[in-house]
Design a protein that fits this description.
Length: 252
């Protein structure tokens, strides 16, 4: 169940901590600067976003991932999404900030924007990760989220996966889906998209039992493996809430 060891003793030096610089800014400033730094003139196309939220759904998801970590601490991350250019993202969200219903015909993939994750109080931890690929490959990866959500529906039924996580949050006594081998809905969508270029983003995961923590672990510790396939990962991140504090209903 826990993450597999990468056999590396050195964290990826290209995943850079910007926490001090952006500690007192909103997340929009971070996203703008990180996109420019990581993506250049591609406008963020194909970047992976991670968010660690302090609202009730976010904290529940962060705590659920503690079983994956050797130290059993909550994950820094509750959600993952894919940038598709112009500040727009595609995601499979437990609670859509944009207010969209996760249509079964679209495999639960919905539209949102980076602005929906701009509040540093609600979303204190943010990261953007970039996989090395050319513009044509980035377009193919993102097209899985924007145009072809059902190419691998038997293996990636994101609508059904989302249902397991909704039950976990809303129903008392429901077991952690990760313990039953159910992947997290948001990270599974990102994995589905990157299979377009035959890339396994979660080498530390047990089969397909992935979560945002696996995406983070892969970027931080599996850089040698990704480099062997000429797919090095770089990233920028801000951590303001390392301990998974939960906001009250009047604090949002």
């Amino acid at each position: 169940m826990v993450l597999r060891h990468s056999q590396s003793d050195t964290q990826n030096p290209n995943v850079t901590n910007w926490s001090e610089k952006y500690a007192s800014t909103d997340n929009s400033a971070f996203f703008t600067d990180a996109i420019a730094d990581l993506s250049g003139d591609q406008d963020g196309l194909g970047l992976i976003g991670l968010v660690g939220s302090s609202d009730l759904p976010g904290v529940a998801l962060r705590r659920a991932q503690s079983i994956l970590r050797w130290d059993r601490r909550p994950s820094l991350w509750s959600h993952a999404f894919l940038l598709v250019g112009g500040g727009e993202i595609r995601e499979v969200a437990l609670h859509s900030r944009a207010g969209h219903f996760p249509e079964p015909a679209d495999n639960a993939i919905t539209e949102a924007t980076l602005a929906h994750y701009g509040d540093p109080k609600r979303d204190p931890n943010v990261a953007l990760l970039a996989v090395k690929m050319d513009a044509e490959e980035a377009a193919r990866v993102t097209s899985r989220a924007t145009e072809d959500p059902n190419l691998e529906r038997l293996r990636y039924d994101l609508f059904e996966t989302l249902g397991f996580w909704q039950a976990y949050l809303w129903t008392r006594g429901t077991a952690n889906p990760l313990e039953a081998g159910v992947p997290n809905h948001s990270s599974a969508m990102v994995e589905y998209c990157f299979e377009e270029i035959q890339l396994d983003l979660t080498p530390g995961a047990n089969d397909r039992n992935s979560a945002p923590e696996h995406l983070w672990n892969g970027a931080r510790w599996w850089n040698d493996a990704f480099g062997e396939f000429d797919r090095p990962i770089s990233g920028r991140f801000v951590i303001r809430d390392p301990h998974c504090a939960v906001l009250g209903p009047g604090e949002l």
